[in-house]
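Progress report, Aim 2. The chain analyzed during this reporting quarter is listed below.
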Amino acid sequence: MKLFQHPISGNSRRVTLTAAHLGLALETRAIDLASPEDRKVLVAINPNNKIPVLVDGDLVLWESNAIMKYLCAQVPGQTLYPADARGQADVDRWIHWTTAHLVSAVAPINMERLWKKYRGGGDPDQPIIDRAELMFHQAARVLEAHLAGRTWLVGEGPTLADFSLAPVLLYAVEAKLPVDPYPNIRAHRDRVFALPAWQATEAR
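Predicted structure tokens for the chain:
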């Protein structure tokens, strides 16, 4: 299996984190999104022109959460994605919640405070940040309450729900995400960051 990705991409990190936890070896190809040539390579396999993309034989699979589930299906007995319908539904609920609510709030903040300057877009647009931070607090209150008394989002060990969520907070310090009022969220993030699989996938 070959993964087209970039080590500083949070979406890519979901996939490499999952593979490392499962003990799956992936051939990786780093895609420089600033390179026109690399963009040509990428758009040829993903019409959305985004990373990550997994290629396994004649299967070309994009969307990081779908790739994570596919990797779990390759490892009998794995525990990241439950075998029972109820457990799967609970994990799926948090994966979709992360995409719909948390990512929607964090992505504009990351763009304004981190990535915009690299694209020559000028200074951060504070009204955009203000709106995104309101969305962040709405989502964070839900997550903070759910994590009260819990170590992981679902069940007794890490699952794809945790692996989907933690990379969203990868640049919390650099982007000045307003996480200080949420100790449960910060503790959960730190638990994922302390896992051997996370340490093994740190960008070098």
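The chain has two domains: 2-73, 85-199. The radius of gyration is 17 Å. These observations will guide the mutagenesis work planned for the next reporting period.
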